[in-house]
């Protein structure tokens, strides 16, 4: 998943096919096996964060839980009753990496809440330039070993030799290149796969390396993960994982990302139309396409201003494109910003836009929505869950981005309706629920493994 803030740009639409649509029939292929009732505390006690019960019903097999306690168990209850106290997380990069994105932000938010619930969380990643090998962040530990590519075989080797355990559970974040945990991990585990990388390999790597990446993603890895619980961010990404990787639908569960409670409307909007885009300046984000769209929208709105937040290796070429168009006075690339400045930009913006070619979700879209900002974005997997087309924003083809932006800036009634819808939709997402649902999936895998081990022992006797 590519990420959002400060150049970390995460990754889709609600729409009539969204998993958050309460009128949609549950998808039995997306459900996990029910959590055993013995893992659930009585209904008295902390209710925990319960944002969208229908989501849990459709995606996590919750009916049997709710039949016992009348609600999903809280994270604290799951930790208390599961006996899982030490969890290891494998990721390519961590939040301090200069190329960190939405995947790294997601891991940090979940790990922080698990640590707050009393779980010993260790995150292992590749080394980050200028950063120490180990660090404590938000209650969990980060261990950085090996290089950008060698981290994958070295982590697998360390795990196979038991150098980092024992652990009660393992979370692998499959971000393009997997760690192949099904081959060597013996503890209960789940895998977070934010989205299929597909054409991204050819966007960022040489043809030879791209072919290697595609071969691993589409041919080598899928057979090894066919019996693994896969978590992803959106229903549209789930469909792509099924269609493109051929993984069994019954093993793929949707757990949407949350939104920090700091993202709220406040202050005044910019006096002139302000269009905001946030993301890493890399090919998959298609900022060259976005610049063309902004130039088109500016023709209808001569006072329009635009700000692009983020950093990346495409910045020099994008700056040349802006200069050649004579747009430097109103279209600015401002690089990375801190959270406070990003929040201020969300609150001043009129519209959030994205021309991205591939996302697992689109966290900048829902962060902006929490500040009352509608979005105009490309119709791709991920965006089709972060945006409810026609209700919280508009989804279009890249060629229509500029014209649609101009229309939303012009039609005040449409803008107000989309802004209200965006605010209401964003209220359904919290990091507390994301962390709870992710841990619930890990607890279920632990229960399933115990049952399998018990059956195997019975057969041996």
Task: Using brief descriptors, characterize the structure shown.
461 residues; 2 domains; alpha/beta; globular; glycosyltransferase; 13% strand; eight-stranded mixed beta sheet; 17 helices; Rossmann fold; Glyco_trans_4-like_N; 14 strands; six-stranded parallel beta sheet; Glycosyltransferase family 4 protein
Can you walk me through this structure?
The protein is an alpha/beta fold. It has two domains: 203 residues, 3-Layer(aba) Sandwich (Rossmann fold); 153 residues, 3-Layer(aba) Sandwich (Rossmann fold), CATH 3.40.50. Helices cover 40% and strands 13% of the residues. β12, α13 and β13 form a beta-alpha-beta unit. α3 packs parallel to α17 and α4 packs across α17.
Spell out the blueprint of helices and strands.
Elements: H1 53-59, H2 63-69, H3 75-82, E1 86-90, H4 102-116, E2 120-125, E3 134-137, E4 140-144, H5 151-160, E5 169-173, H6 181-184, E6 189-192, H7 200-204, H8 207-224, E7 230-232, H9 235-245, E8 252-254, E9 274-278, H10 287-300, E10 305-309, H11 315-324, E11 331-335, H12 339-348, E12 351-354, H13 363-370, E13 375-378, H14 383-386, E14 393-396, H15 401-410, H16 412-426, H17 431-460
Parallel strand pairs: 1-2, 1-5, 2-4, 5-6, 6-7, 7-8, 9-10, 9-12, 10-11, 12-13, 13-14
Antiparallel strand pairs: 3-4
Helix pairs in contact: 3-17, 4-17, 10-15, 13-16
Pfam families: Glyco_transf_4, Glycos_transf_1
Keywords: Glycosyltransferase, Transferase
Domain Glycosyltransferase subfamily 4-like N-terminal: 101-262
Tally of separate helices: 17
CATH architecture of the largest domain: 3-Layer(aba) Sandwich
Class inferred from helices and paired strands: alpha/beta
Mean pLDDT: 84
Can you identify the CATH superfamily of the largest domain?
A: Glycogen Phosphorylase B
Number of strands: 14
CATH topology type of the largest domain = Rossmann fold
Reported for the largest beta sheet, the result is:
8 strands, mixed
Low-confidence stretches: 1-5, 7-68
The outline comes out as globular
Give the N-to-C terminal Cα separation.
46 Å
* CATH C-level class of the largest domain: Alpha Beta
InterPro entries: Glyco_trans_1 (IPR001296), Glyco_trans_4-like_N (IPR028098)
Protein name: Glycosyltransferase family 4 protein
Keywords: Glycosyltransferase, Transferase
